[in-house]
Amino acid sequence: MSSNRRLFLAAAGAVAIGSSAMAQTLFPSRPIRLVVPSPVGSPGDIVSRVLAERMGQDLKSAFVIENRPTATGAAVVPEVLRMPADGTTVYYLGSTMLINPLLYPSMNLDYVRDFVSIGGTTVTQSVLVVGAGSRFNSVQEIIREARARADELTYASPGSGFPPHLAAELFKQKSATKIRHIPYVQLGQALTDVISARVDMMFLGISVAMPQIRAGKLKAIAVAGSTRSRALPEVPTIAEAGLTGYSYISFEGMLVKRGTPDAIVQRLADSLSMAKRDPAALTSFGNLGLETLDMSATQFGQYYAAEAEKLIAFAKEIGIRAE
Description:
Blueprint: H1 3-26, E1 32-36, H2 43-59, E2 63-67, H3 77-82, E3 89-94, H4 100-103, H5 111-114, E4 115-131, H6 139-148, E5 154-157, H7 163-175, E6 180-183, H8 187-195, E7 201-205, H9 206-214, E8 218-223, E9 249-257, H10 262-276, H11 279-287, E10 290-292, H12 297-317
Parallel strand pairs: 1-2, 1-3, 5-6, 5-7
Antiparallel strand pairs: 3-9, 4-7, 4-8, 4-9, 4-10
Helix pairs in contact: 2-10
């Protein structure tokens, strides 16, 4: 073996040992707690588990997923912020949570002030669906009838402030239409009523809509993002279908309490970045109709801060108020 080859192998070994030693030095022996404000089996829960498994292997620290499902993910934030700023408590952010400061002003929530980004995880496209037997086959057909029959067409959602509601309200705003909101407590009942045409339409996350579309119970009209979905490549975007300027997505990411040492934040960010590139993880995301949010920790921090401002402004504009 040449001396150069020996030097290369020695250097590579030193890097690997250094990375392992760094993880052990930065993180205490106790597990890393990942707080996920969504139920077991939900897309966010599945993504968090896939990523936590790979990050745990990389960091040599076990991840413990703690599902804390609440309507908006706000209730658990004070508890997370009471934990030490040492990287052992990670909060899983969904973009809908960014309007919580508007919904719960007494809680003094501020995800930009109180947290620092580890990185984005996935993007969820929504799809505009109607029942399989619906007379509607295009965005333009819906817009024409909605303009001709103000407040007669209906759309379903699981409640104000959730992605199906926000996506539909943006659709109404961009198309200058009036479509009546029918909120539901149970998503399953909303789906049933759209399938049976008791309600005209609904925006749904692709991971939720896909089984019903494949079963022939729902018809996909258009996807809400700025690009077509890999899960439904034949379905146009709403902008492509004629509503120029329309785009709505949901996204998720991981945060830690502000004040966490920079070295720990960077190590977690590097680990998350590695986990997102894992081929098995990418397959899992694709099966859910999700796409990876390919941003650095810094980029995601800037992105969700800007989105928080836009979401709160839009929520105020459409009349979402504190409960």
